[in-house]
């Protein structure tokens, strides 16, 4: 019964945030993240993000990312080489336009544990091939997960998730954007979890809020 109440609470939050996004100028992001072991050291990253100007239907951006990673130490200190396809449909002078970007990226992730707090640092370098331009960008992400209903991130655990990520251009102006995020999550089992939260993005001295619902899948492709 306790598990049922926890899952019901998270679903209620997800539905509430979806409804709130539909009736405001907030954006909404629906996200899937896969990080699946291929061997003991290698992992396959796969990701789809469907981003809307409103709750659903008015596409802002479709982002597809994939890559192969390698653990320098057991289940930690991961280096990864990846590719991203980004379809953007921004409004320009009230009219929708369409842009396609191809992106190559390299990243390093390291994890730490401080009591109940699970920390993750991600350093990412991106080479961005836009339709009429080429840009390079550096990103630093600091995220944390804190279990609430258990001492560890065990199955059927509610947890708090938060992150801050800064984006820096290789040329001027150096500052691109900053994202701050907070959410409530639920560990479904040892390989799957779900989160519902809110992210605020500062870009060009403008703030924009995003409702986010994310699903995380770590089911390994191998038993070894």
TrEMBL record:
InterPro entries: DUF2490
Endpoints of the signal sequence: 1-21
Keywords assigned by UniProt, alphabetized: Signal
Domain of life: Bacteria
UniProt-recorded name of the protein: DUF2490 domain-containing protein
Organism of derivation: Chryseobacterium kimseyorum
UniProt lineage: Bacteria, Pseudomonadati, Bacteroidota, Flavobacteriia, Flavobacteriales
